[in-house]
Structure formats: structure tokens, C-alpha cells
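Lab meeting minutes (informal)
Scribe: AK
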Amino acid sequence: MGQQFQLDRFGEALTLFAAARRQDRLAADAWKAADIAVRAIAQRWRQPDADIWELDPGPWTHSRLTCVAGLRALADAALSHRLPVTCTSLADTVLAATAATSVHPDGHWRRTPDDPAVDAALLLPALRGALPANDVRTRATLAASRRQLTEDHFIYRYRHDNRPLGEGEGAFLLCGFVMAQAQHQQDRPVEAHRSFERNRGADRAAGLYAEEFDIAQRQLRDNIPQAFVHALLLETVARLAHNPKPDDVHRSEGT
């Protein structure tokens, strides 16, 4: 992992900087770190990366859209005016190039230009602001994820092969909470709360969550405790407590 290039980490860092700015918790010199992250995206977004999922290097759609979300968040937080690279312009460039190669004929985001599969991780960039909720690709990705990857209101990250989903790996609890947020973003409160409660109930007596849940055996699998899952649980609680916000100004028509 230490030797991997993970492009999406720069986008996540920018999203974090922007959130800190909105809460007036951003240190005065933090823009220097933001500048480094923006420059890294500008210089390396075309290169293969391993994504946060530690995959084989490739042009992962998730990584590029995560960077788009981070750049847009930074621009909204009024930080980007201090940077030599125009965040909005770079975000538009990355989004347009990604859309040109990584949209499935059915309308959903595909994992890479050469991998047509839907991936539940691709629900997350829209929640972070890469695209608005009413973008057709946002809605198509949610619909495809629900249709192809869900079972008993749990969700698998992607389909490995033609085997039943549960034989490839367990359901991803992180993606289950992301699904709940995506349904909430689309103003589907019943579906959102059903997904949330199903995945919330997958903890054990200690209240800890693993990375995966074996639906057939009703038990946790893989890394435990998994910090990402707990973080998404808390975020989902916060989001579901409020009505979805109207779409912001980040329209993506024509990209």
C-alpha cells in the first residue's frame, strides 16, 4: 500500500479542507497543502492509479470523479482563489474526459473505460458534489447498483464474475451506508432508511463493524473493526436527519 499511487486521496483531502473551511476550522497555512493536492491532480490525473480500494493500476473512474468532487468543494469554500490552478476549470476538464470514456451505454458510470461493470463505490462522488443529484449518470448509477448489486437491502461493491454475488465476497457495509445516502439524495426516504437500518444491524455485540457482511451466514467478514464503515455510519446518520438539499450549481450538461 505504501508504494501505491492512489489518485483519489488527493480529492478526498480537498473535500476535507473545504469542510474545515466551512466550519472555520482550517489553519491559515493549510492552503499550501491544498495547493500541493491540486497540483498533483493536475499533473497526474491521466496516469493509472490503484484507487483507495488498492486495485491493480488503471484509469479508475472512482478516482477521477473523487478528484472532481474535491476540486468543486474547494472552489465552493472560496479557497481556490488563492491557488495558481483554477479548480473549477480543472474539475470540468477531468469530468469531461472521464465522461467521454467511462459512461456505460445504459447511462451509468463504468469502473474503467475497459470495464463496463457498475461499482457501488461510484455512488459516492455524487454525494461529495462531483455531479448534481439530478444528473442522469447519478440516477443511472444508483438504479444499476440497486438492480445488479443489492440483496436483502445489502449491497456488494461490484460483480466479480458470473457467480452469485455472495460467492465472490461479502456485502460491503460501507457501500450499504453510501446507498442509503444516495437514496436519501434522490428523496427516497423509505428506501434510504431501510438500507440504513439493514446495514446498521450488521454489527456484533461490541458495536463494531467489519468491512464485509456474509448475508448467507449472517456474520461479519474481513477487516474488523473497519474505520471507513464507522465513519460512513456516522455520516449517514447526519445526512438522514435532514431533508436533501436542492441541487447545487454544478451542472454537467454536455459533459
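Next up, CB showed the second protein from the same session:
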Amino acid sequence: MNMRASLLAFEPVDTLAALCKASGDTLRLNILRALANDSFGVLELAQIFATGQSGISHHLKVLAHAALVATRREGNAIFYRRALAQGEQLGSRLRSALLDEIDQLQLPVDIQQRIAVVHSQRAAVSQAFFSRCAASFQAQQDLIAGLPQYRDSVLALLDSLGFANDASAVEIGPGDGGFLPELAQRFQRVLALDNSPAMLELARLRCTEEGLSNVELQLADALNDDYPAADCLVLNMVLHHFAAPAEALRKLAQHLKPGGSLLITELCSHNQSWAREACGDLWLGFEQDDLARWADAAGLITCESLYVGLRNGFQIQVRRFAKPSITHGLRAAITGHQQEPER
């Protein structure tokens, strides 16, 4: 009885010991750094860190035991990500301090380069899919989340924002152009970007049929090519095709004017892996908290969130993120200065 009481008394110390053990290795700290705003499979991490799969699996097991990483199964693959904060539980302050410290550090250049290679491999898979399946893509997409399911929700949100008469919009990945007529009615200038020539041709046919004279189509990489900043960026069922969604939000935010809005329509997290083959999805939806966290890291403010009912086991989230206006930033700085406590 006394022995059991003694063991129970040491359980909190065991929790802290697991955290300390997990953080006592350079490779494990770099894994945590790489997972700051991304998810990777075991094979991808083995490639990134030039380490055998069994070695990576061992380190991930240690990190999981310390509740520093969590897993998510997508079909036959298991992806690792940072575990969400545990509030006021034992070790939360130590965990927070650890992650805050390593997030101030840069990953070694060779690791950054191998992460870029993994992202390029993902992007190549996505682009190959659209080159191969452009003609049948929309029919497959409609099985999951077609435009008619979420069009009214996105339009209601757009119309509530009161954009100026001379406002501009950019749609990333317009697909067959089904949403472009709606944007053309509401914005003076609309730019549609796609990195798939086949998909862009479908959008071009739509614009010709609809007579959309204020819509410009451009074959471009929305993350790396140059284009004018807009008052509104629209991504309808597109983010799950990006190799690195968090990095995508950071880069897209740079193309928003101050006070502008980023509208994202996406699937909530799901486990229907057939969507990968049918629609070329790299990610099986997203957790709502992840989108908000990535947007915050990109300097955006989380605003309205709408959720469209389930269909075939899928739920759609319609989210708006805003780029602070210059006056908003100045006001926040002044307010923060005025509220600074006396020392």
C-alpha cells in the first residue's frame, strides 16, 4: 500500500521527466521545429532528417510519450504534427517555454532544403493529377463538395463585407470558373490564377460563354509568382491541394491589401482517403483550430466562420480572415502603449 502511494506521488514528476527527456536531443528538437506549421509522414521525416525510418519512429515515440506530437491517420498513412497545448495541465508552462525557445531558432540549411524537396514532391503529385484529370475533376469534386453546396454561404459572407465599387478580387484555383461570374458582378477587377493549363482553359471557356470582360486569367503559381495585391482573395476547395498550407497562407497574406479579406472554403478534417485518388487531395480537410493558428502566424485576424451541413460524411467550413488595416495597427499600438502597466 505504501509502495503504491509512493508510485502515485511520483507520477507528476514522471510527466516532467518525459518532457525533459524528449527535449534532451538535438534531432527531436529539430523535428519539433519542422512541425511548427506542418505535418509530415514518417517517410517524409526520414527523408528530411536523412535518418532511417526506425530511428525516426523511435524519436517520434519519445515525443508522443511527452505529448509533444500527435498523430493523424489519412488512409494508410500516419502524419505527425505538434500536439495542441494542454491548457493548465502539469508541464504546460515548461512545454510552452520549450516551443517558444525553439521557434526562435532557424533550422539548419540542409534540413530546410530537404523540407523544400518534400514540398516540391507533394506539389508535383498535385500538378500531375490536374494535368491528367482536368476534364473529369469537377464531376469528382461534386461528389465531395460541389459549388452549389457552399455558393450561397460564400456569397452571403461576401455581400456582408461591403467592398468599395472599385475593389479587386483574386481567385486562386478557379477550377472550371464556376464562381467567377459571381466575383465579376461584385468586383471591378477579378484575377483568376491557376498553375494548371488544362484547368485554366476550362475557366477561359466559362468566361467566354458568360462574357466576363472584367476577369483576367493568368497561368501562375499563386505562392511564388508576382501579381497585384487585392481587396479580397478567394480559395474555394483549394487549400487542400497545397503542399504546405500554413506556408501558403503566409504567402497569400502578402497579396492582400490592408483591411482586405481572405475567404477560404474548405472541408473539415475527415478520414475518407478515397478523396486523394478521386480529386487529388493532398490533405483530408483541416482542423478549424489549425486554420486559425496558421492565419494568426501569417498576420491575419480570424473573423466569421460558417459551417455547411454534412454530405456523404463531409462538412464544409467557410472562413474569413482579415489583414489589419494601417489605422487598426496604429490604434492597437497606441492602445497597447497606453495600457502598459507602470513599473
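CB comment: The chain has two domains: 2-107, 133-330.
No objections, moving on.
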